[in-house]
Amino acid sequence: MDDHSDDIRRPLSPRIEVFAGAGRKRWPDDLKAQIAAESLEPGAVVTDVARRHGCRPQQVHDWRRRARLGQLVLPASAETLSFVPVVSESALPAAAEPTGSPEAAVVTVELQGARVEVRGRLALLC
After folding, report:
1. pTM of the prediction?
2. Exposure of 53 by Cβ count < 10 A (0-12 exposed, 13-18 middle, 19+ buried)?
3. Angle, CA of 29, 71 and 75, to the nearest 5°
4. How confident is the model over 50-84, as pLDDT tens digits?
């Protein structure tokens, strides 16, 4: 007996409709960052992380790219210690001598609304 899908004598299957939701899911940035950070842990597989959170691997890869570009801030891990490069806004001329006043050198660090200033004398190392 042959079974052909284009046989018009064969009864049609009942129609099934699938409702997938009201549209695209909105992912808050903090959740995107958490998922991207989880995918960056040693031994993590992007596909598994995406499946666990109900998103597509392409989304996770995009969030990781955005984190590399600084567009998405990943949460800091408690056991991870990282260093931030220091960038000087202005450099002293090569022949500059410190003035000796306490105001001669000021290092200001601003991070997440906190500000720390360290004042002191410059020490030239030669």
Report:
1. 0.47
2. middle
3. 55
4. 999 999 999 999 999 999 998 998 887 656 666 66
Residue 44: other Cβ atoms inside 10 A: 13
Closest CA to 118 of 82, 75, 70, 86: 86
> Could you give the CA distance from residue 33 to residue 70 in angstroms, rounded to a whole number?
11
Q: State how far the Cα of 56 lies from the Cα of 53, in Å rounded to an integer.
A: 9
Helix axes 29-39, 46-53, angle to 10 degrees: 140
User: What is the residue whose two structure tokens read 């596909």?
Assistant: 47
- Residue 89: count other Cβ atoms within 10 Å of its Cβ: 5
Distance CA 33, CA 31 (A): 5
Total residue count of the chain as it appears in this document: 126
